Amino acid sequence: MSDQRMPDKGEGWTRPARLGGDEREQLHVKQAALEFLDRVGLVPTPDAIGQLTEAFLPCLAIICQRGWDPNGGTWRSSGVLGILGDVRKKFERLWERGWKHGKRHDDSGYDLMNYVGFYMRSGIDRWGTWGEPAQPEPEVQFPEEAERYGP
Questions:
Q1: Cα 10 to Cα 72: distance, rounded to the nearest angstrom
Q2: Residue 1's closest CA among 38, 34, 28?
Q3: What is the domain partition of the chain in residue ranges?
């Protein structure tokens, strides 16, 4: 990818120039996608190339550019249940903006896709390094309160 970056409306990451560049650069990205799909044994279709270049590639750019643990420690720390909570929050944000307000918000979609990807890669570790949450302590009732307020 080119080192040249284009600002993306302050959403916390910058779109690599080739993802939003001129026709020549877009053609280069599409050719690289076609070659990638072919090399991994898939028969490239225009829809698959579009999905890779217009949806998955921007998601990967976010992962490469944001200051998270490069080995996935940030998302792995919450375990699969924490990731599912993040998926739900990202979906609700996308739903709110897109369905209820009729506004397109690509950053919400990219974040949702990334968290679904984290879920797919997370395995079965329910709690991650955070550990299982504590159970609530039983409510202590003092004898004088029981008489005054009942059980």
A1: 24
A2: 28
A3: 1-67, 69-128
